[in-house]
Design a protein that fits this description.
Number of helices: 6
Oligomer: single chain
Distance between the termini: 29 Å
Shape: elongated
Number of strands: 4
Length: 158
């Protein structure tokens, strides 16, 4: 599977403007990035089509939905069942992200929960998935650095 194409400095300028104001109109993005409206529209379409820009889903704090507890569940999986496990994880609403890893741990599963008892329930659901061999749960005590790409966008734009 191939990944998205690398962005050029013009795309980077556009994405920096978009990261500062995610709800900006095409005209506002053109003004902020110094590009024409048609260029902005064409570039955004191309970035979406190639997969360089994925969902514009806004980041919502799970605590606002009643899930203040965050944890990561490292998971060992029978390799032949990895796709099946991924589908089962997608069916658990509290699983907000899952990453495949190299090394001794196969998956890093990001989960949210109402409280410790709820986390125990969610971790139990993960462990019950056919193909999951072992899990280990760690609480996220504090987010020290949020997900960010602005420093890389600035580098790509230079």
């Amino acid at each position: 599977m191939s990944g998205p194409e690398r962005i050029d400095p013009t795309d980077a300028r556009l994405l920096i403007a978009l990261s500062h104001t995610p709800r900006a109109t095409t005209v506002a993005l053109a003004e902020a990035s110094g590009l024409s409206r048609n260029t902005v529209q064409a570039r955004l379409s191309a970035l979406e089509r190639t997969g360089a820009v994925a969902s514009f889903e806004r980041r919502i704090d799970p605590a606002a939905l009643g899930y203040p507890l965050a944890a990561v569940v490292t998971t060992r999986v029978a390799q032949r069942r990895l796709d099946e496990v991924a589908r089962a994880l997608a069916a658990i609403p509290e699983v907000v992200q899952a990453d495949g890893l190299s090394g001794d741990t196969d998956l890093l599963v990001h989960v949210v929960a109402v409280d410790a008892e709820d986390l125990y329930r969610v971790a139990g659901h993960i462990l019950e998935i056919p193909g999951v061999e072992r899990t280990s749960t760690a609480l996220v005590m504090r987010r020290l650095l949020p997900y960010r790409l602005a420093p890389l966008l600035r580098r790509a734009g230079a």
